[in-house]
């Protein structure tokens, strides 16, 4: 393992779980949790369909529904997904005031 200061150390792995196993464990603890994988290219601009998939996933959610975004490195793809989710939530929020 290399820490943030680039210091190397060894650790013993006692248990290793796949992402699917972790999500299934969380679903038991948090009923209603939905896991949606959206593969977004990291080396080129996102496709329109990437935005559509994220928006379709969020359709039907409430304003206060949490959205968790994760990617392997946590750089551009995570930022893209967060921006899409925030814009979607903003549209939801704005629409909730229509007709008042």
Topology:
Layout: H1 19-29, H2 48-58, H3 76-96
Helix pairs in contact: 2-3
Overview of this protein structure:
This protein has 100 residues and is an all-alpha fold. Helix content is 43%, strand content 0%. It is built from three helices and no strands. Helix 2 crosses helix 3. The longest helix is centred in the last third of the chain and has 21 residues, at 76-96. The chain is extended. It starts with 18 loop residues before the first helix and ends with a helix. The mean pLDDT is 86.
The helix fraction, in percent, is: 40-55%
Protein structure class:
mainly alpha
**Oligomer type:** single chain
Proportion of strand residues = under 5%
The whole-number mean of residue pLDDT values reads: 86
Shape: extended
Unreliable stretches (pLDDT < 50, length at least 5) are none
The radius of gyration over CA amounts to: 18 Å
Give descriptors for this structure.
100 residues; mainly alpha; 3 helices
Would you kindly provide a brief summary of this structure?
The chain is mainly α and 100 residues long.
